[in-house]
């Protein structure tokens, strides 16, 4: 898995938020109310984009955060600073989550630092646009599935012994699971797998008092698309085809992750929330 980094044509992914203009909006929009007081959350892909917004909002609501990220040390350091500015503790863990060993490392370092895990946010993902299915290499196909879905299995397996009744797992799926995407065949396929994984894992764990839900964002302004995750043609009109006529911001998605993590959602499991700019989907 590690050997693959840099070999793909989109080796800039997931990209540096620090270099992106305009900057994504990650700032929480309201004061905290202690909904995650004393909790510990792992947020994968927590260095930028949706992950940063989730980490910032969770910290404002009282949680300590383990930030798992791939390569962007500067972005991870900034997210750590953001969490600490909210008065919470944070650690940043550099790990390629496509390997079981890396996922075990993330859980081990989180337990060493905080002694517990209450929330697991499986947010990290990657995408590579291809106009023709024959352009998708075996290497790319394997890596997309390793990062987007295998990592979720590995992280849940590693975290499971530490998750007690009341814990929450929130997976990031996508509107592409419901609509499809002609340029993101492998990515969309993984998002379908993530949604089915969410439903099935909920059935598996709900009896243990562990809730499993998902969030399916629409087009959101994060480093992923402008740093190689979308074709130049798609970027020109990114988000304009939503009913709201614009892409969303990470801090418009983070509240869905907060709701599913806290007691407000105590009677919800196996569900998917859709912050997508008004796109009507079935499910």
Automatic annotation (TrEMBL):
Catalysed reaction(s) here are: 2,5-dichlorocyclohexa-2,5-dien-1,4-diol + NAD(+) = 2,5-dichlorohydroquinone + NADH + H(+)
Keyword Cytoplasm in the entry? The reply is no
Keyword flag Transit peptide: no
- UniProt entry keywords in alphabetical sequence: Oxidoreductase
Stretches for region Disordered: 1-32
Give the matching Pfam families. Answer: adh_short_C2
Task: Spell out the SUPFAM superfamilies in the cross-references.
Answer: NAD(P)-binding Rossmann-fold domains
Question: Which InterPro entries does the UniProt entry name for this protein?
Answer: NAD(P)-bd_dom_sf, Sc_DH/Rdtase_CS, SDR_fam
Composition bias, kind Basic and acidic residues: at what positions?
A: 1-26
What molecular function does GO assign, one term? oxidoreductase activity, acting on CH-OH group of donors
Q: Which family does it belong to?
A: Belongs to the short-chain dehydrogenases/reductases (SDR) family.
Name the UniProt record assigns to this protein: NAD(P)-dependent dehydrogenase (Short-subunit alcohol dehydrogenase family)
The organism is: Sphingobium jiangsuense
């Amino acid at each position: 898995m590690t050997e693959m980094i840099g070999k793909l044509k989109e080796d800039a992914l997931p990209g540096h938020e620090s270099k992106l203009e305009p900057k994504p909006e990650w700032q929480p929009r309201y004061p905290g109310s202690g909904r995650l007081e004393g909790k510990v959350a792992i947020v994968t892909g927590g260095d930028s984009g949706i992950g940063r917004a989730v980490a910032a909002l969770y910290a404002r609501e009282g949680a300590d955060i383990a930030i798992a990220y791939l390569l962007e040390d500067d972005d991870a350091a900034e997210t750590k600073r953001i969490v600490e500015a909210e008065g919470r503790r944070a650690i940043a863990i550099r790990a390629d989550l496509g390997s079981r060993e890396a996922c075990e490392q993330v859980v081990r370092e989180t337990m060493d630092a905080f002694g517990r895990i209450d929330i697991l946010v499986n947010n990290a993902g990657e995408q590579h646009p291809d106009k023709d299915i024959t352009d998708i290499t075996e290497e790319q196909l394997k890596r997309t599935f390793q990062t987007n879905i295998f990592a979720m299995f590995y992280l849940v397996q590693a975290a499971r012994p530490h998750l007690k009744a009341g814990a929450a797992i929130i997976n990031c799926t996508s509107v592409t699971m419901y609509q499809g995407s002609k340029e993101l065949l492998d990515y969309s396929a993984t998002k379908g797998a993530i949604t089915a994984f969410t439903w099935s894992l909920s059935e598996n764990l709900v009896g243990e008092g562990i809730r499993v839900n998902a969030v399916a964002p629409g087009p959101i302004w994060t480093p992923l698309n402008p740093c190689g995750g979308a074709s130049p043609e798609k970027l020109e009109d990114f988000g304009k085809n939503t009913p709201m006529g614009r892409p969303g911001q990470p801090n418009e998605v983070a509240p869905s992750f907060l709701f599913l993590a806290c007691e407000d959602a105590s009677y919800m499991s196996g569900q998917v929330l859709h912050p997508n700019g008004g796109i009507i989907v079935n499910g």
